[in-house]
Design goal:
The N and C termini lie far apart (69 Å). The chain has 184 residues and is an alpha+beta fold.
Length: 184
């Protein structure tokens, strides 16, 4: 991970970064994010780049944290500039989704409709059978998409359920009925 950790994080012109020991706040056109990083990490801002290092680079735990910290910081900068998005696809006859206020209403084969409350700082859109979940925090976007998928996971026989757009469902063969013709 040290190879990833050694790469500097470039800061675009419209992003403001404040470093206070291990507490970093990033403010950009889409919003602001704050995070408290591990005490083993050191942040140094040089011009429009932030260099991440660790106090003891020879320790295994420090090297593990180094790359992770750098990627988390890069995701914060990317989130406040472009944002993150996950797309889910609904498959099944009569399965549909709609948004009413801050609730995602899913009709996915149960006897009742399922209401999912959309968290703050997350935007959800529904177009035909595609649900788009967008936000500035990559972790929260991924968690919300996973929670929506968990409501009705895709089943392996017909593929009915909620899946990620780029996800491939491994299909299973159904039961084969033996014919009784020809046996007397």
């Amino acid at each position: 991970m040290a190879r990833i950790g050694k790469k500097p994080v470039s800061i675009p012109a419209d992003v403001e970064v404040k470093i206070n020991n291990q507490f970093i706040s990033v403010k950009g056109p889409k919003g602001s994010l704050e995070r408290n990083f591990h005490h083993r990490t050191i942040f140094e801002q040089k011009g429009d780049e932030i260099h991440v290092s660790v106090r003891k680079p020879n320790e295994k735990r420090s090297r593990e944290i180094w790359g992770t910290t750098r990627v988390l910081l890069a995701n914060m900068v990317l989130g406040v500039t472009k944002g993150f998005e996950k797309k889910l696809e609904i498959n099944g006859v009569g399965f549909r989704a709609s948004i009413t206020g801050k609730k995602l209403v899913l009709n996915v084969g149960f006897s009742h409709s399922v209401e999912f409350i959309i968290p703050e700082n997350i935007e959800a859109k529904v177009e035909k059978n595609i649900i788009s979940v967008a936000g500035i925090d990559k972790q929260v976007v991924g968690e919300v998409a996973a929670q929506i998928r968990e409501i009705k996971k895709p089943e392996p026989y017909k593929g009915k359920g909620i899946k990620y757009v780029d996800e491939v469902i491994r299909r299973k063969a159904g039961k084969v009925v033996k014919s009784t013709a020809g046996t007397t």
